[in-house]
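Worked example 3. Consider a protein that binds NAP.
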Amino acid sequence: MTTVYVSGATGFIAQHVVKQLLSKGYKVIGSVRSTEKGDDLVKNFGSDFKYEVVADVGVPGAFDESLKKHPEVSVFLHTASPFHFNAKDVEKDLLLPATEGTKNALKAIKNHGPQIKRVVVTSSYAAVGDASHEEDPNHVNTEESWNEISWEGALKDVRQGYRGSKTFAERAAWQFVKDEKPTFVLSTVNPVLVFGPQAFDSAVKDTLNTSSEVINNFFKLKSSDPVPSANGRFIDVRDVARAHLVAFEKDSAKNQRLVMTAGDFSGQEIADIIHKNFAEASKDVPVGKPGTGPQLRTNMSKSNFSKTENILGFKYIDLEKSVIDSVQQVIKKKA
Ligand code: NAP
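Given these inputs, the predicted complex is written out as structure tokens:
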């Protein structure tokens, strides 16, 4: 029976990871920031889920005690990292918890969890795509691509801050492996913007996690508002969770960056899917210019992540299903 440690178990992605782990028969130790949050998760996950409180991953030694207590853990998935755009101090609120949190996790594994053989860090496409190429349709990103952002560049604003936080944290993880030569093997999962339903209906609140809020926000608009110009790339949370399992289960995922995108989207395409499928609930959602979505995102860089697709070996959920399943849950909660 394999026991998997999941840091940041309350997170949008992490809850799906834990759900899939439990359904495949793994035992799970999750780190959470308070006993209240841990007790809430136990209600949903049941007794194969245990938690440890790690209030701030950025504090030196953050994971030491919980790993000492759990010598049965043989896989560590590090998902905890701040993902929000309301940081007052980019360095303190984003860059340091992300980078120090990752280093603290890896140090704790090396020093107190020598039996841990596989480690997966949840990184991001933010650590892959460099801003200088993002609007160049002739540029192709692959698993070898890196965001070249500097620490100073990341301090410019919260969005650059988040992109920097993921880049520096992932670089720190690979550097740790190079310098320390630990006995564990590292893999990273680098998703683009993650859509899809919350793991449990009870997790639906007025304001959702940063990426889910992109879709939730459509239901906070007036029909006279412009359609949000939210161009980007998406992947469904259930696929991202599945990739975290493949990342430690398959040998071919060892030492790999698994960079995941299911395709590009524009705000108009999200609006079109909402109107087509939710006539009643979408009365206040702006209509925009239906059908024009693909033309609004022609200046985006391209990608070739076929190496990742070959390792993962499953087909990604498409935009329509991801949006429908997200919206259905939000509407159910409002009813
Ligand atoms: P989320 O719901 O906001 O989850 C973030 C998790 O990290 C929560 O469990 C949070 O705990 C925890 N956390 C944040 N700062 C912490 C700190 N200083 N100390 C302890 N715990 C801390 O976001 P998510 O979308 O699931 O993101 C999970 C991971 O995926 C992150 O590493 C994120 O960068 C990455 N990612 C997300 C997306 C996306 O579009 N969602 C895309 C690419 C990569 P609390 O809940 O208690 O605050």
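Take a moment to read the result before moving on. Residues 8, 10-14, 33, 37, 54, 56-58, 79-83, 97, 122, 124, 166, 191, 193-194, 209, 211 surround NAP (CB under 6 Å). The first strand starts at residue 3 and ends at 7.
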